[in-house]
Amino acid sequence: MFLQTDDQTIEDLRLFAKKEQKGIYDIYNNAATRGGELLLEKMFRNPLSDLEAITERSGIIGSFAKMRTIFPFQPAILDSVEKYLSQDQEQRDGQKSTLGEREMANGIAAIIELLHALHSFLEKGDITKVSGLKRESIAMINLLNDPGLEPAFKEKPGSKLSYAAITAFDILFRVKERTRITTALNFIYQLDVYIAVGAVANKRDFTFPLARPKGSNLLKIEGVYHPELNSPVPNSLHMHAGKSVVFLTGANMAGKSTFLRSYSTAVYIAHMGFPVAAASVEFSVMDGIYTTINLPDNLGIGASHFYAEVLRVKKVATELGAGKSLFILFDELFRGTNVKDAHEGTVAITHAFAGKGTSMFIISSHIVEAGDELKQKRNIAFHYLPTRMKGTVPEYTYTLEEGITDDRHGMIIIRNEGILETLKNGKKN
């Protein structure tokens, strides 16, 4: 079972690189193989929504991290295997194979060496201490012990093969036993991801999340920070059934969007069973996660920013109406309309969200006046990111506090930048 999400959320969380900016995927991508990189991307696009699957994957990665396992296969060998096997696909697609006799010999030698290395790792490597891979390990040993692959294990890795042997192995590997070879290769890619992510956890001191059953209404994240920041300020937020909605306020530049990305990224990554940039994470497994941080206008259908927001809320409402348990985040709800409508809409929608007790919501807003009406609901909590004034210069702690702020420093910043003076007197050299 996979966690429901969408392209908007993936874009909001900056999971993948865009233009010159790297993504969260790049932080975790320590894979040694191209196949491992592709599998990691697939995992990023398909987080899990099953307690057992999340716990199992987290346990496997954690085991390799604890042992500080090194990827036991040479990437160059895997490159040769991939290049060799790809020729069969080219031929099936009607293209002429470009594989020469030497490349064929290298590919066959690489498969023989790889099969021996995999067999050795399964019998004597760190994988023998990983309980979460016991079933897959047994299946893989049985695959390698199949009589069809026996000729490969009769050969010593690195030994020179005759032309007749190369021809025979070519038919064996690329035709008769191709499925088994591909299965073994995919298992190695899986190991690549597990070992690589475990190494990232050690290097960055990420924590492994603790998943709880669906419906337990818990989202407790301590010391969360954004993994792309060089000097992040960690924050903690504990959500539960009695505090299922958080109304977040704070002046511009106080760090709201960064906190929202940090927290929602942690929720997303935790559902992948991956280690998270936080001190600790304990969460109820959910059905889906939807964020709205940078919602673009939909010019293709002539939709304004406000209408795009309305459609986004409608989509979320439809998913909630189906009885799903969701994590929902809106950064500055209804920013695309006038203050009066935004006020009324924010209060109405947040009140409605508060009635969905099996889901979790974070709503940020500049409309601090809405807080007075929202206090009627006992499960709505209020947090803010403060601004401290040092004379006429605002300073930001980036540390979450309880309550509602009325910090308004927009005009101070405008004056500090000398904009009004420039407009009045012109630019001075």
Automatic annotation (TrEMBL):
<dbReference type="Pfam" id="PF00488">
    <property type="entry name" value="MutS_V"/>
</dbReference>
<keyword id="KW-0547">Nucleotide-binding</keyword>
<dbReference type="GO" id="GO:0006298">
    <property type="term" value="P:mismatch repair"/>
</dbReference>
<feature type="domain" description="DNA mismatch repair proteins mutS family">
    <location>
        <begin position="243"/>
        <end position="424"/>
    </location>
</feature>
<dbReference type="GO" id="GO:0005524">
    <property type="term" value="F:ATP binding"/>
</dbReference>
<dbReference type="InterPro" id="IPR000432">
    <property type="entry name" value="DNA_mismatch_repair_MutS_C"/>
</dbReference>
<dbReference type="InterPro" id="IPR027417">
    <property type="entry name" value="P-loop_NTPase"/>
</dbReference>
<dbReference type="GO" id="GO:0140664">
    <property type="term" value="F:ATP-dependent DNA damage sensor activity"/>
</dbReference>
<dbReference type="InterPro" id="IPR045076">
    <property type="entry name" value="MutS"/>
</dbReference>
<keyword id="KW-0067">ATP-binding</keyword>
<dbReference type="InterPro" id="IPR036187">
    <property type="entry name" value="DNA_mismatch_repair_MutS_sf"/>
</dbReference>
<protein>
    <submittedName>
        <fullName>MutS-like protein</fullName>
    </submittedName>
</protein>
<dbReference type="GO" id="GO:0030983">
    <property type="term" value="F:mismatched DNA binding"/>
</dbReference>
<keyword id="KW-0238">DNA-binding</keyword>
